Amino acid sequence: MASAESALQQHVHALYSDHHRWLQGWLRRQLGNAFDAADLAQDVFLRLLHREPCDIREPRTYLSTIEP
Q1: Of 6, 8, 49, 58, which is most buried, counting CB atoms within 10 Å of its CB?
Q2: pLDDT tens, residue by residue, 16-51
Q3: 11, exposed or middle or buried, with CB in 10 Å at 0-12, 13-18, 19+?
Q4: Residue 4 and residue 64: Cα distance in Å, rounded?
Q5: How far apart are CA 60 and CA 57, in angstroms?
Q6: Where are the domains of the chain?
């Protein structure tokens, strides 16, 4: 169980490192508000911590479809 959690955390960390700035900018353009965009981007990555890891071929498309 601990190794599965560790793998998930590493997966989410890699997504966060590679795409957080993009997601927050995309949300800021969609919402017109940097503060709400920052909150929603954080919510997206928190939701990922509660999902099963999966093979993501298009991370930005995937991240933009997660409901916060």
Answers
A1: 8
A2: 999 999 999 999 999 999 999 999 999 999 998 888
A3: middle
A4: 25
A5: 9
A6: 2-65
Say if pTM beats, i.e. exceeds, 0.70.
yes
- Both structure tokens of 48: 């990922």
- SS3 label, residue 53: coil
Lookup result for tokens 């498309």: 61
Per-residue DSSP letter, 48? H
Main-chain dihedrals φ then ψ at residue 16, nearest 5 degrees? -60, -50
Write down the pLDDT at residue 23.
Answer: 97
Decide: 18 and 9 in contact? Cβ < 8 Å: no
